[in-house]
């Protein structure tokens, strides 16, 4: 009978715990298909969080919403999370479109919706069924010249076999704000026979900041870059990093194709490779610089192809030159030294123009997250990403010291377990990465105690107090004549699955129901 009662108690505790805690499950979200471009960017924009103002920017959470910036080129945007753009490799490739234009006359210029035009495959007057002579006037703008009149002209055309992401803005300039909030856009692909090749085609007096572009694959013609094709006016580009490949014919930049006067580019890190078809107007950061580039660096390649503006506090580890062609530009406190001269403590000595107090920091082998001396990095940019790119990063670990004492504060030898590591002693130490950890300490004759600790960039100490366990056989209630009598017990801290021992029959209250348990 006693065994049956114990079984009933455990079952009731399990049921009551489930009722209290509730039943939780995992709902799998339906993934959207990002292997094709969005059909209507205006519809996508309408469904996004935010309203596009400074105080309530549109929030971009996927690559379709990134493309939807096309629908409002003056709005404020932020990235709400990292964006997987790898699906853009299959966008807009081998696309064929048909559009109808009523009552057109010889010499008219008509404009199709999808650009750039690769080829016109058919032009027919659908009222007569006869072919109509037309020609491409401006492929990038989608303009077609009508050379014969038609009542209802149907144009069939292709936008090219290359495809990829459609650079935001096209022939119109972006004038708003895009703040990546430190998030990454990974795998952006653009392959164009025309001049539209970048995340954003052209900007004017716009702000783009706090964005990381990883593993880009960009190919186009003139003025090609991963982030921007061309920057005009008081454009401000800040805290950007890029890795991947960018290729074009001329004015090719790993980050930006061309910057005009008054534009400012600052705190940019480029591990991108910029290549061109025979031209030297290529640089890991900017192809042709007419503005100001400051506090930036590039790996393996000169930062600027052609410089007619200013380059300040910028370096490259290529040990070559800061620019391929300096035409009427200025270069101040910028360095192309040897590796030994620019790594570790030597950097601060050999690069005196850099502000190592606030803008730059040296990378030392003695740092907790490095494996060797490295090149200077920007304090405002992601430290881990910069160290990983230099191949000197290691995951930092910190020390957790756990001391165990009894109720009187005396040292107590205990078994302490943290993250699968077990040690015995009154003081134990563990080497841990950043994160949240459950700690458990136990000793013979003492209750087991648990604690949670968070490691966040520093070592921690923790003291755990263990109390002696009580003997349940010494607990009993008697009446005045010395006889055992029923008693009402409050059971606190009961653990599911543990048998509760009682010396007499007990009234147990679980979720409003009363159960009387009698010891045999």
Q: Would you mind describing this structure in some detail?
A:
By secondary structure, this protein is mainly β. It starts with a helix and ends with a strand. Residues 1-31, 493-499 and 504-520 have low confidence and may be disordered.
Strand content: 35-45%
Q: Figure out the total of helices.
A: 6
Percentage of helical residues? under 10%
Distance between the termini: 7 Å
Beta strand count:
40
* Mean pLDDT across every amino acid position: 85
Largest sheet: 12 strands, mixed
Short description:
The chain has 520 residues and is mainly β.
Identify the notable features of this structure and list them briefly.
disordered N terminus, membrane, about 40% strand, disordered C terminus, about 525 residues, mainly beta, flat, six-stranded parallel beta sheet, twelve-stranded mixed beta sheet
Task: Give the SSE map.
Elements lengths: L1 H20 L19 H6 L11 E3 L2 H5 L8 E4 L3 E2 L11 E9 L4 E3 L7 E7 L4 E2 L2 E5 L4 E4 L3 E9 L4 E2 L12 E10 L2 E3 L8 E5 L2 E13 L2 E3 L3 E5 L3 E13 L1 E4 L2 E4 L4 E13 L5 E2 L2 E4 L2 E7 L5 E4 L2 E7 L6 E4 L3 E3 L6 H4 L3 H5 L9 E4 L10 E5 L4 H7 L8 E8 L8 E5 L2 E5 L1 E6 L2 E8 L6 E7 L4 E6 L21 E2 L17 E5 L2 E5 L3
């Amino acid at each position: 009978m006693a065994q049956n009662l114990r079984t009933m108690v455990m079952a009731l505790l399990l049921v009551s715990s489930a009722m209290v805690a509730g039943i939780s499950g995992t709902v799998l979200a339906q993934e959207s298909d990002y292997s094709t471009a969005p059909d209507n960017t205006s519809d996508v924009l309408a469904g996004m969080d935010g309203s596009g103002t400074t105080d309530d920017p549109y929030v971009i959470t996927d690559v379709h919403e990134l493309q939807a910036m096309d629908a409002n080129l003056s709005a404020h945007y932020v990235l709400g999370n990292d964006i997987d753009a790898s699906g853009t490799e299959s966008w807009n490739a081998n696309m064929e479109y048909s559009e109808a234009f009523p009552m057109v006359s010889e010499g008219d210029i008509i404009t199709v919706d999808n650009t750039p035009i690769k080829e016109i495959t058919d032009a027919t007057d659908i009222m007569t069924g006869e072919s109509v002579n037309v020609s491409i006037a401006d492929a990038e703008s989608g303009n077609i010249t009508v050379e014969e009149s038609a009542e209802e002209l149907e144009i069939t055309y292709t936008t090219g076999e290359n495809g990829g992401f459609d650079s935001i803005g096209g022939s119109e300039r972006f004038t708003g704000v895009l703040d990546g909030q430190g998030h990454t856009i990974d795998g952006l692909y653009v392959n164009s026979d025309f001049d539209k090749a970048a995340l954003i085609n052209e900007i004017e007096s716009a702000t783009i900041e706090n964005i990381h572009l990883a593993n880009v694959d960009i190919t186009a013609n003139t003025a090609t870059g991963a982030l921007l094709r061309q920057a005009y006016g008081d454009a401000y580009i800040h805290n950007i990093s890029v890795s991947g490949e960018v290729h074009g014919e001329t004015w090719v930049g790993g980050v930006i194709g061309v910057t005009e006067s008054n534009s400012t580019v600052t705190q940019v890190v480029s591990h991108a490779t910029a290549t061109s078809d025979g031209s030297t107007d290529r640089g890991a950061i900017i192809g042709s610089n007419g503005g100001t580039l400051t506090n930036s660096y590039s790996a393996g390649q000169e930062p600027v192809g052609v410089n007619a503006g200013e380059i300040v506090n910028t370096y490259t580890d290529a040990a070559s030159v800061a620019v391929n062609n300096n035409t009427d530009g200025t270069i101040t406190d910028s360095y192309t030294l040897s590796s030994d001269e620019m790594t570790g403590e030597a950097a601060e000595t050999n690069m005196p123009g850099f502000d190592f107090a606030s803008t730059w920091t040296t990378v030392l082998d003695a740092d907790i997250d490095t494996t060797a001396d490295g090149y200077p990095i920007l304090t405002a940019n992601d430290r881990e990403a910069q160290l990983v790119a230099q191949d000197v990063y290691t995951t930092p670990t910190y020390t957790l010291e756990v001391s165990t004492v009894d109720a009187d504060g005396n040292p107590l030898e205990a078994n302490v377990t943290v993250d699968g590591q077990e040690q015995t002693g009154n003081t134990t130490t563990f080497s841990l990465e950043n994160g949240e950890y459950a700690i458990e300490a136990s000793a013979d004759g003492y209750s087991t105690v648990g604690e949670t600790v968070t490691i966040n960039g520093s070592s921690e100490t923790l003291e755990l107090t263990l109390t002696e366990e009580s003997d349940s056989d010494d607990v009993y209630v008697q009446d005045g004549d010395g006889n055992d009598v029923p008693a009402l017990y409050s059971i606190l801290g009961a653990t599911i699955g543990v048998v509760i021992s009682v010396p007499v029959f007990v009234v147990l209250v679980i979720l409003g129901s009363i159960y009387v348990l009698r010891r045999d």
